[in-house]
Amino acid sequence: MDLEDRTAVCWHGGDSGTWPDRAWKRRSIMLLMMAGLLASTVFSAVIGWPDASGALTFAQRITGVLFIFSGVVQGAAAIAALDYWGKRQGRASGAIVLLGVIIALTTDSILLSLWLEEREYTHYLLVYASLWCWSIWALFILVREKSWKGIPQPKTFAAGVVATALLTALSLAYSTMYQPAAAPMHFTLKAKFGKAWKDRRLPFVHVPLTLYMKNTGGVPVYIVNDIYTVRGRAALYSEGEEDLTAEWRNSVEREGRREGEAELYVDRLRYTTISSGRFSGSGNSLDVGQEYSLERVFQLPSDARYDTVSVEFQISYMRKDRGKLDVDEFRVPHPSWNERDSRYYCPPEICGEQLVYHGRVRHNNNLINMTRKPRYVTAVWSPDGRFISSISSLRFDFSGTGDYREERRELERYGATRSRAGSEISVAELLGSAGV
Fold first, then answer.
1. Mind telling me which residue stretches traverse the membrane in this protein (predicted)?
2. Of the candidates 436, 376, 372, the residue with the CA atom closest to the CA atom of residue 407
3. For 117-153, how does the pLDDT look when each residue is reduced to its tens digit (9 = 90+)?
4. Does residue 7 fall inside a structural domain?
5. Does residue 195 contact residue 430 with C-beta atoms inside 8 Å?
6. Cβ atoms of 270 and 235 closer than 8 Å
7. Which end is more exposed in the chain, N or C (fewer Cβ atoms within 10 Å of the end residue's Cβ)?
8. What is the count of structural domains for the chain?
9. Which of 182, 201, 223 marks a domain boundary?
Protein backbone atom coordinates (compact mmCIF):
# COMPACT_ATOMS: atom_id res chain seq x y z
CA MET A 1 0.00 0.00 0.00
CA ASP A 2 1.22 3.44 -0.91
CA LEU A 3 1.11 5.30 2.40
CA GLU A 4 1.29 8.64 0.58
CA ASP A 5 -1.85 7.91 -1.46
CA ARG A 6 -4.44 10.25 0.08
CA THR A 7 -7.33 8.30 -1.49
CA ALA A 8 -6.34 5.17 0.44
CA VAL A 9 -4.91 6.59 3.68
CA CYS A 10 -6.16 9.53 5.73
CA TRP A 11 -3.61 10.94 8.17
CA HIS A 12 -4.59 12.78 11.32
CA GLY A 13 -1.99 14.94 13.01
CA GLY A 14 0.91 14.12 10.68
CA ASP A 15 1.98 12.18 7.59
CA SER A 16 3.58 8.82 6.77
CA GLY A 17 6.67 9.87 8.67
CA THR A 18 4.72 10.30 11.90
CA TRP A 19 3.19 7.48 13.91
CA PRO A 20 -0.54 8.26 13.42
CA ASP A 21 -2.00 6.87 16.63
CA ARG A 22 -1.76 9.16 19.64
CA ALA A 23 -3.14 6.70 22.15
CA TRP A 24 -3.41 9.13 25.05
CA LYS A 25 -5.40 11.65 22.98
CA ARG A 26 -7.68 9.02 21.45
CA ARG A 27 -8.40 7.43 24.80
CA SER A 28 -8.97 10.81 26.45
CA ILE A 29 -11.55 11.73 23.81
CA MET A 30 -13.16 8.31 24.18
CA LEU A 31 -13.43 8.65 27.97
CA LEU A 32 -14.85 12.17 27.74
CA MET A 33 -17.39 11.03 25.13
CA MET A 34 -18.47 8.06 27.23
CA ALA A 35 -18.66 10.12 30.43
CA GLY A 36 -20.83 12.80 28.80
CA LEU A 37 -23.12 10.28 27.12
CA LEU A 38 -23.56 8.24 30.30
CA ALA A 39 -24.34 11.42 32.27
CA SER A 40 -26.86 12.41 29.62
CA THR A 41 -28.39 8.92 29.83
CA VAL A 42 -28.99 9.26 33.56
CA PHE A 43 -30.23 12.85 33.21
CA SER A 44 -32.74 11.92 30.48
CA ALA A 45 -34.10 9.17 32.72
CA VAL A 46 -34.40 11.63 35.62
CA ILE A 47 -36.37 14.01 33.36
CA GLY A 48 -38.62 11.41 31.76
CA TRP A 49 -39.45 8.96 34.54
CA PRO A 50 -41.77 11.20 36.64
CA ASP A 51 -43.84 12.05 33.55
CA ALA A 52 -43.80 8.52 32.15
CA SER A 53 -44.94 6.96 35.42
CA GLY A 54 -47.17 9.58 37.00
CA ALA A 55 -48.37 12.17 34.45
CA LEU A 56 -52.11 12.67 34.29
CA THR A 57 -52.55 12.88 30.51
CA PHE A 58 -51.55 10.43 27.81
CA ALA A 59 -49.54 13.04 25.89
CA GLN A 60 -47.45 13.88 28.94
CA ARG A 61 -46.72 10.20 29.53
CA ILE A 62 -45.64 9.83 25.90
CA THR A 63 -43.29 12.77 26.39
CA GLY A 64 -41.77 11.06 29.42
CA VAL A 65 -41.37 7.82 27.48
CA LEU A 66 -39.60 9.71 24.68
CA PHE A 67 -37.08 11.09 27.15
CA ILE A 68 -36.46 7.63 28.57
CA PHE A 69 -36.04 6.25 25.04
CA SER A 70 -33.58 9.05 24.23
CA GLY A 71 -31.65 8.02 27.35
CA VAL A 72 -31.47 4.46 26.03
CA VAL A 73 -30.12 5.75 22.70
CA GLN A 74 -27.49 7.80 24.52
CA GLY A 75 -26.52 4.73 26.54
CA ALA A 76 -26.04 2.80 23.29
CA ALA A 77 -24.00 5.72 21.96
CA ALA A 78 -21.71 5.49 25.00
CA ILE A 79 -21.03 1.83 24.12
CA ALA A 80 -20.54 2.77 20.46
CA ALA A 81 -17.97 5.40 21.50
CA LEU A 82 -15.85 2.60 22.97
CA ASP A 83 -15.79 0.94 19.55
CA TYR A 84 -15.44 4.11 17.46
CA TRP A 85 -12.28 5.23 19.29
CA GLY A 86 -11.14 1.63 19.59
CA LYS A 87 -11.00 -1.04 16.89
CA ARG A 88 -13.95 0.33 14.86
CA GLN A 89 -15.48 -3.07 14.22
CA GLY A 90 -18.95 -1.56 13.80
CA ARG A 91 -19.45 0.60 10.70
CA ALA A 92 -22.29 2.59 12.25
CA SER A 93 -20.63 3.23 15.62
CA GLY A 94 -19.65 6.79 14.70
CA ALA A 95 -23.17 7.62 13.50
CA ILE A 96 -24.67 6.24 16.72
CA VAL A 97 -22.33 8.40 18.78
CA LEU A 98 -23.31 11.42 16.66
CA LEU A 99 -27.03 10.68 17.22
CA GLY A 100 -26.50 10.47 20.99
CA VAL A 101 -24.64 13.79 21.04
CA ILE A 102 -27.35 15.50 18.96
CA ILE A 103 -30.03 14.26 21.39
CA ALA A 104 -28.00 15.54 24.35
CA LEU A 105 -27.47 18.93 22.69
CA THR A 106 -31.19 19.24 21.88
CA THR A 107 -32.30 18.32 25.40
CA ASP A 108 -29.83 20.66 27.10
CA SER A 109 -30.71 23.50 24.71
CA ILE A 110 -34.42 23.13 25.57
CA LEU A 111 -33.59 23.20 29.28
CA LEU A 112 -31.41 26.28 28.94
CA SER A 113 -34.03 28.12 26.90
CA LEU A 114 -36.65 27.35 29.56
CA TRP A 115 -34.27 28.46 32.29
CA LEU A 116 -33.67 31.79 30.55
CA GLU A 117 -37.39 32.63 30.88
CA GLU A 118 -37.16 32.95 34.68
CA ARG A 119 -33.41 32.73 35.41
CA GLU A 120 -33.92 31.02 38.74
CA TYR A 121 -30.99 29.11 40.16
CA THR A 122 -31.46 25.37 40.69
CA HIS A 123 -28.93 22.61 41.28
CA TYR A 124 -29.93 21.08 37.95
CA LEU A 125 -28.61 24.17 36.16
CA LEU A 126 -25.04 23.04 36.85
CA VAL A 127 -25.83 19.69 35.23
CA TYR A 128 -27.46 20.73 31.97
CA ALA A 129 -25.25 23.81 31.50
CA SER A 130 -22.16 21.60 31.80
CA LEU A 131 -23.67 18.97 29.49
CA TRP A 132 -24.56 21.66 26.95
CA CYS A 133 -20.93 22.81 26.82
CA TRP A 134 -19.80 19.18 26.55
CA SER A 135 -22.26 18.45 23.71
CA ILE A 136 -20.98 21.45 21.71
CA TRP A 137 -17.42 20.14 22.06
CA ALA A 138 -18.47 16.56 21.21
CA LEU A 139 -20.42 17.68 18.14
CA PHE A 140 -17.40 19.64 16.92
CA ILE A 141 -15.15 16.56 17.28
CA LEU A 142 -17.61 14.27 15.48
CA VAL A 143 -18.26 16.70 12.62
CA ARG A 144 -14.53 17.26 12.16
CA GLU A 145 -13.97 13.51 11.90
CA LYS A 146 -17.10 13.01 9.73
CA SER A 147 -18.27 10.18 11.93
CA TRP A 148 -21.35 9.50 9.80
CA LYS A 149 -19.28 8.18 6.85
CA GLY A 150 -19.35 4.62 8.15
CA ILE A 151 -23.08 4.08 7.58
CA PRO A 152 -24.26 2.82 4.16
CA GLN A 153 -27.13 5.32 3.74
CA PRO A 154 -26.30 8.64 5.45
CA LYS A 155 -29.36 10.42 4.00
CA THR A 156 -31.72 7.89 5.57
CA PHE A 157 -29.93 8.33 8.88
CA ALA A 158 -30.27 12.11 8.67
CA ALA A 159 -33.99 11.82 7.82
CA GLY A 160 -34.52 9.57 10.84
CA VAL A 161 -32.79 12.08 13.11
CA VAL A 162 -34.96 14.95 11.80
CA ALA A 163 -38.15 12.89 12.12
CA THR A 164 -37.32 11.96 15.73
CA ALA A 165 -36.60 15.60 16.59
CA LEU A 166 -39.89 16.75 15.05
CA LEU A 167 -41.86 14.06 16.87
CA THR A 168 -40.31 15.06 20.18
CA ALA A 169 -40.94 18.77 19.55
CA LEU A 170 -44.59 18.16 18.59
CA SER A 171 -45.15 15.97 21.65
CA LEU A 172 -43.66 18.62 23.93
CA ALA A 173 -45.72 21.40 22.35
CA TYR A 174 -48.93 19.35 22.55
CA SER A 175 -48.45 18.30 26.18
CA THR A 176 -47.32 21.71 27.48
CA MET A 177 -49.32 24.18 25.40
CA TYR A 178 -52.27 22.81 23.43
CA GLN A 179 -53.74 20.12 25.65
CA PRO A 180 -53.87 22.13 28.93
CA ALA A 181 -55.45 25.02 27.04
CA ALA A 182 -57.93 22.84 25.16
CA ALA A 183 -59.37 21.05 28.21
CA PRO A 184 -62.04 23.38 29.68
CA MET A 185 -62.49 23.90 33.41
CA HIS A 186 -66.00 24.57 34.73
CA PHE A 187 -67.61 24.22 38.11
CA THR A 188 -71.21 24.19 39.27
CA LEU A 189 -71.79 25.55 42.78
CA LYS A 190 -75.11 25.86 44.56
CA ALA A 191 -76.12 27.10 48.00
CA LYS A 192 -79.77 26.87 49.06
CA PHE A 193 -81.75 27.35 52.27
CA GLY A 194 -84.37 24.79 53.25
CA LYS A 195 -87.56 24.95 55.30
CA ALA A 196 -86.93 26.20 58.83
CA TRP A 197 -88.16 24.35 61.92
CA LYS A 198 -89.00 25.76 65.32
CA ASP A 199 -87.31 24.27 68.38
CA ARG A 200 -90.02 23.42 70.96
CA ARG A 201 -87.60 23.44 73.87
CA LEU A 202 -85.55 26.53 73.03
CA PRO A 203 -86.43 29.90 71.49
CA PHE A 204 -84.54 29.11 68.29
CA VAL A 205 -85.29 28.23 64.69
CA HIS A 206 -83.25 25.56 62.90
CA VAL A 207 -82.48 26.44 59.29
CA PRO A 208 -81.16 23.75 56.88
CA LEU A 209 -78.47 24.76 54.39
CA THR A 210 -77.51 22.65 51.36
CA LEU A 211 -74.20 23.14 49.56
CA TYR A 212 -73.49 21.44 46.24
CA MET A 213 -70.45 21.23 43.97
CA LYS A 214 -69.87 19.40 40.66
CA ASN A 215 -66.92 19.35 38.27
CA THR A 216 -68.62 19.96 34.93
CA GLY A 217 -65.37 20.70 33.06
CA GLY A 218 -62.95 18.47 31.19
CA VAL A 219 -60.08 18.19 33.68
CA PRO A 220 -59.73 16.96 37.31
CA VAL A 221 -58.83 19.56 39.92
CA TYR A 222 -57.38 19.92 43.40
CA ILE A 223 -59.47 21.80 45.96
CA VAL A 224 -57.03 24.34 47.42
CA ASN A 225 -59.40 26.18 49.76
CA ASP A 226 -63.12 26.44 50.45
CA ILE A 227 -65.44 28.30 52.79
CA TYR A 228 -69.10 28.99 53.33
CA THR A 229 -70.29 31.92 55.44
CA VAL A 230 -73.83 32.63 56.65
CA ARG A 231 -74.49 36.26 57.56
CA GLY A 232 -77.47 38.04 58.99
CA ARG A 233 -78.25 41.56 57.79
CA ALA A 234 -79.74 44.28 59.93
CA ALA A 235 -80.70 47.61 58.37
CA LEU A 236 -82.23 50.97 59.09
CA TYR A 237 -85.36 51.50 57.01
CA SER A 238 -86.45 54.88 55.71
CA GLU A 239 -89.28 56.40 53.70
CA GLY A 240 -87.03 56.97 50.70
CA GLU A 241 -87.04 60.77 50.70
CA GLU A 242 -83.81 60.85 48.67
CA ASP A 243 -83.46 59.52 45.15
CA LEU A 244 -81.67 56.21 44.55
CA THR A 245 -78.37 57.75 43.40
CA ALA A 246 -78.07 60.03 46.41
CA GLU A 247 -78.96 57.18 48.77
CA TRP A 248 -76.35 54.97 47.10
CA ARG A 249 -73.68 57.68 47.25
CA ASN A 250 -74.25 58.22 50.96
CA SER A 251 -74.19 54.48 51.61
CA VAL A 252 -70.90 54.02 49.76
CA GLU A 253 -69.28 56.72 51.89
CA ARG A 254 -70.39 54.95 55.07
CA GLU A 255 -69.03 51.59 56.15
CA GLY A 256 -71.30 48.58 55.72
CA ARG A 257 -72.71 48.81 52.20
CA ARG A 258 -71.44 46.05 49.93
CA GLU A 259 -69.98 47.09 46.59
CA GLY A 260 -72.49 47.31 43.78
CA GLU A 261 -75.63 47.54 45.96
CA ALA A 262 -78.13 50.38 45.75
CA GLU A 263 -81.43 50.37 47.67
CA LEU A 264 -83.83 53.25 48.21
CA TYR A 265 -85.52 52.29 51.49
CA VAL A 266 -82.64 50.46 53.24
CA ASP A 267 -79.63 52.12 54.82
CA ARG A 268 -77.05 51.65 57.58
CA LEU A 269 -76.43 47.98 56.84
CA ARG A 270 -74.81 45.80 59.49
CA TYR A 271 -73.72 42.23 58.77
CA THR A 272 -73.17 39.61 61.47
CA THR A 273 -71.52 36.26 60.80
CA ILE A 274 -73.88 33.51 62.03
CA SER A 275 -72.13 30.39 60.77
CA SER A 276 -68.93 29.60 58.88
CA GLY A 277 -67.21 26.37 57.96
CA ARG A 278 -65.38 24.15 55.48
CA PHE A 279 -67.03 22.25 52.67
CA SER A 280 -64.64 19.73 51.13
CA GLY A 281 -61.27 20.39 52.74
CA SER A 282 -57.92 21.55 51.37
CA GLY A 283 -56.02 18.98 49.33
CA ASN A 284 -58.98 16.88 48.17
CA SER A 285 -59.52 16.32 44.45
CA LEU A 286 -62.59 16.27 42.24
CA ASP A 287 -62.56 14.26 39.01
CA VAL A 288 -64.49 15.10 35.86
CA GLY A 289 -68.23 14.63 36.48
CA GLN A 290 -67.76 14.02 40.20
CA GLU A 291 -70.12 15.84 42.54
CA TYR A 292 -70.25 16.49 46.26
CA SER A 293 -72.96 17.87 48.50
CA LEU A 294 -73.14 18.84 52.15
CA GLU A 295 -76.05 19.65 54.44
CA ARG A 296 -75.68 21.87 57.46
CA VAL A 297 -78.12 23.27 60.02
CA PHE A 298 -77.63 26.61 61.73
CA GLN A 299 -79.74 28.32 64.37
CA LEU A 300 -81.51 31.68 64.47
CA PRO A 301 -83.22 33.22 67.54
CA SER A 302 -86.98 33.32 67.21
CA ASP A 303 -86.84 37.07 67.83
CA ALA A 304 -83.89 37.64 65.47
CA ARG A 305 -83.50 41.28 64.49
CA TYR A 306 -82.15 40.44 61.04
CA ASP A 307 -84.20 41.26 57.99
CA THR A 308 -82.37 38.85 55.65
CA VAL A 309 -79.97 35.94 55.91
CA SER A 310 -77.44 35.26 53.14
CA VAL A 311 -74.88 32.55 52.44
CA GLU A 312 -71.70 32.95 50.40
CA PHE A 313 -70.02 29.76 49.20
CA GLN A 314 -66.65 29.87 47.40
CA ILE A 315 -63.83 27.50 46.51
CA SER A 316 -60.39 27.91 44.99
CA TYR A 317 -58.91 25.09 42.92
CA MET A 318 -56.11 24.24 40.48
CA ARG A 319 -55.88 21.93 37.48
CA LYS A 320 -54.40 18.48 38.03
CA ASP A 321 -53.13 18.30 34.44
CA ARG A 322 -50.70 21.17 35.14
CA GLY A 323 -49.46 20.37 38.61
CA LYS A 324 -49.17 17.58 41.17
CA LEU A 325 -49.81 18.68 44.73
CA ASP A 326 -48.16 16.96 47.67
CA VAL A 327 -51.51 16.31 49.36
CA ASP A 328 -50.05 14.45 52.35
CA GLU A 329 -48.18 17.59 53.32
CA PHE A 330 -50.84 20.06 52.22
CA ARG A 331 -53.73 18.48 54.13
CA VAL A 332 -52.09 19.08 57.52
CA PRO A 333 -53.52 22.29 59.09
CA HIS A 334 -51.17 24.59 61.00
CA PRO A 335 -52.95 26.75 63.63
CA SER A 336 -51.48 30.25 63.65
CA TRP A 337 -51.84 30.48 67.43
CA ASN A 338 -49.65 27.41 68.09
CA GLU A 339 -46.46 28.83 69.63
CA ARG A 340 -44.65 25.50 69.30
CA ASP A 341 -44.82 25.78 65.50
CA SER A 342 -42.54 28.80 65.08
CA ARG A 343 -42.80 28.79 61.30
CA TYR A 344 -46.55 29.33 61.24
CA TYR A 345 -47.01 31.11 64.58
CA CYS A 346 -48.41 34.62 64.60
CA PRO A 347 -49.67 36.40 67.73
CA PRO A 348 -53.50 36.36 67.79
CA GLU A 349 -53.62 40.10 68.46
CA ILE A 350 -51.90 40.60 65.08
CA CYS A 351 -53.21 37.81 62.87
CA GLY A 352 -56.26 36.57 64.72
CA GLU A 353 -56.95 32.84 64.69
CA GLN A 354 -56.54 31.09 61.37
CA LEU A 355 -55.51 27.79 59.82
CA VAL A 356 -52.64 27.61 57.33
CA TYR A 357 -52.22 24.85 54.73
CA HIS A 358 -48.89 24.70 52.91
CA GLY A 359 -47.39 22.15 50.51
CA ARG A 360 -45.11 21.62 47.53
CA VAL A 361 -46.52 21.52 44.00
CA ARG A 362 -44.70 20.07 41.01
CA HIS A 363 -45.43 20.90 37.40
CA ASN A 364 -46.70 17.96 35.35
CA ASN A 365 -44.06 18.70 32.71
CA ASN A 366 -40.84 17.76 34.50
CA LEU A 367 -38.81 20.04 32.22
CA ILE A 368 -40.38 22.96 34.09
CA ASN A 369 -39.37 21.48 37.45
CA MET A 370 -35.77 21.19 36.23
CA THR A 371 -35.59 24.88 35.36
CA ARG A 372 -37.52 26.52 38.22
CA LYS A 373 -37.27 26.86 41.95
CA PRO A 374 -39.72 24.74 43.96
CA ARG A 375 -43.28 26.09 44.03
CA TYR A 376 -45.54 26.00 47.09
CA VAL A 377 -49.30 26.26 47.46
CA THR A 378 -50.59 28.15 50.50
CA ALA A 379 -54.16 28.36 51.77
CA VAL A 380 -55.28 30.46 54.75
CA TRP A 381 -58.71 29.97 56.36
CA SER A 382 -60.51 31.48 59.32
CA PRO A 383 -64.20 31.54 60.33
CA ASP A 384 -64.38 35.32 60.09
CA GLY A 385 -64.12 35.02 56.32
CA ARG A 386 -60.34 35.15 55.74
CA PHE A 387 -59.85 33.15 52.56
CA ILE A 388 -56.45 33.28 50.81
CA SER A 389 -54.95 30.97 48.20
CA SER A 390 -51.59 31.55 46.54
CA ILE A 391 -48.79 29.79 44.64
CA SER A 392 -45.27 31.10 45.04
CA SER A 393 -41.60 30.08 45.11
CA LEU A 394 -41.32 31.45 48.67
CA ARG A 395 -41.72 29.36 51.78
CA PHE A 396 -44.62 30.50 53.93
CA ASP A 397 -44.27 33.30 56.46
CA PHE A 398 -46.52 36.01 57.92
CA SER A 399 -44.25 38.86 56.85
CA GLY A 400 -46.34 39.69 53.79
CA THR A 401 -43.24 40.20 51.62
CA GLY A 402 -44.41 38.03 48.73
CA ASP A 403 -44.18 39.02 45.08
CA TYR A 404 -47.78 39.51 43.94
CA ARG A 405 -46.82 39.55 40.27
CA GLU A 406 -45.15 36.19 40.67
CA GLU A 407 -48.20 34.83 42.49
CA ARG A 408 -50.52 35.94 39.68
CA ARG A 409 -48.20 34.41 37.09
CA GLU A 410 -48.00 31.11 38.97
CA LEU A 411 -51.77 30.98 39.48
CA GLU A 412 -52.19 31.27 35.71
CA ARG A 413 -49.44 28.72 35.03
CA TYR A 414 -51.07 26.08 37.22
CA GLY A 415 -54.60 26.99 36.18
CA ALA A 416 -55.68 28.10 39.65
CA THR A 417 -58.90 30.08 39.95
CA ARG A 418 -62.02 30.57 42.10
CA SER A 419 -65.72 29.87 41.87
CA ARG A 420 -68.47 31.17 44.10
CA ALA A 421 -72.17 30.95 44.66
CA GLY A 422 -74.59 32.67 47.00
CA SER A 423 -78.17 32.84 48.14
CA GLU A 424 -80.30 35.18 50.24
CA ILE A 425 -83.63 34.74 51.99
CA SER A 426 -85.76 36.98 54.18
CA VAL A 427 -85.98 36.14 57.88
CA ALA A 428 -89.72 36.70 57.67
CA GLU A 429 -89.98 33.83 55.19
CA LEU A 430 -87.85 31.55 57.36
CA LEU A 431 -89.86 32.30 60.48
CA GLY A 432 -93.09 31.92 58.56
CA SER A 433 -92.09 28.48 57.30
CA ALA A 434 -91.35 27.51 60.91
CA GLY A 435 -94.71 28.77 62.12
CA VAL A 436 -93.25 31.56 64.28
1. 29-50, 62-82, 94-115, 121-143, 155-174
2. 376
3. 888 889 999 999 999 999 999 999 998 888 877 666 6
4. no
5. no
6. yes
7. N
8. 3
9. 182
